[in-house]
């Protein structure tokens, strides 16, 4: 099996996704994990991230075991994204590292020996970009170590350090908070982001607007791009049909994608990512 390297974005990447700084967002509707972005959860009392119960375990994925994260949202807010950051225990031995990294070393043969020695000192990072309402559970959040999928089981080497969370704050605002596992303290970030960033430009107006709580993206004179988290496959399929009703003609379709042409020659692509419960919308003007 060809192993694909995925750069671990940590806090910056996850929060960019959650706060739509890189064209990400999420709609209304309930995903396969029971999560929903249908209504915001205003902060009625102090946010306590100790009530967000996380778990990381070695799980069979694509015929191999790798660390995956699950969590139950015991807070009073809707969670938009989670980045769980571990650190290696101070008493970990070289023999323990050698054993824990053996499966990853065997699966990814492209790692140079010098890089492998450095990799064995890296922490574990686990992320989720699913929208999870209070009381709901999210599963199969991907874990990485040094930018690689965490193939094997690294939990015996690790202890939790910090957790960064993006959450719905009010009806159209995303807030951020960090939990310090050492001091058992939740710290709220002053930075906020608009949850629904659907544009009002000429190009965007040619598209049907998804019925979503959270929409994020980017707009230029010649293209627009949006990402919608929390989307089901049925919602993706319905959106493709709405595009056709708006005058777009199918140019190619599959289970999780659709390419279409606008009446003015524009190119539209809509993709669905089931693992992330995410739909992306990209529209470019004619050359």
UniProtKB/TrEMBL annotation:
Provenance organism: Bifidobacterium stellenboschense
Keyword Ligase listed: no
Protein name: DUF6591 domain-containing protein
InterPro entries: DUF6591
A matching Pfam family: DUF6591
This protein's UniProt keywords: Signal
Signal peptide interval: 1-22
Residues of the DUF6591 domain: 194-286
């Amino acid at each position: 099996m060809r192993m694909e390297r995925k750069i671990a974005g940590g806090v910056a990447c996850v929060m960019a996704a959650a706060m739509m700084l890189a064209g990400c967002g999420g709609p209304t509707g309930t995903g396969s994990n029971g999560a929903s972005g249908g209504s915001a959860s205003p902060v009625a009392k102090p946010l306590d991230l100790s009530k967000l119960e996380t778990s990381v375990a070695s799980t069979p994925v694509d015929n191999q075991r790798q660390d995956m994260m699950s969590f139950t949202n015991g807070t009073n807010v809707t969670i938009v994204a989670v980045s769980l950051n571990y650190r290696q225990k101070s008493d970990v031995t070289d023999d323990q590292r050698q054993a824990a990294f053996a499966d990853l070393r065997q699966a990814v043969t492209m790692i140079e020996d010098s890089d492998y020695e450095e990799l064995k000192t890296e922490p574990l990072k686990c992320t989720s970009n699913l929208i999870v309402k209070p009381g709901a559970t999210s599963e199969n959040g991907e874990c990485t170590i040094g930018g690689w999928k965490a193939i094997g089981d690294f939990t015996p080497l690790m202890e939790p350090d910090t957790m960064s969370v993006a959450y719905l704050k009010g009806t159209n605002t995303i807030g951020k908070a960090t939990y310090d596992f050492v001091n058992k303290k939740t710290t709220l970030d002053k930075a906020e982001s608009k949850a629904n960033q659907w544009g009002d430009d000429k190009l965007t107006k040619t598209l049907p607007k998804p019925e979503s709580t959270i929409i994020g993206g980017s707009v230029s004179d010649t293209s627009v791009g949006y990402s919608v988290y929390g989307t089901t496959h049925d919602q993706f399929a319905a959106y493709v049909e709405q595009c056709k009703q708006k005058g777009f003609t199918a140019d190619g379709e599959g289970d999780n994608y659709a390419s279409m042409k606008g009446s003015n020659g524009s190119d539209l692509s809509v993709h669905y990512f089931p693992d992330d419960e995410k739909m992306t919308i990209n529209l470019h003007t004619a050359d």
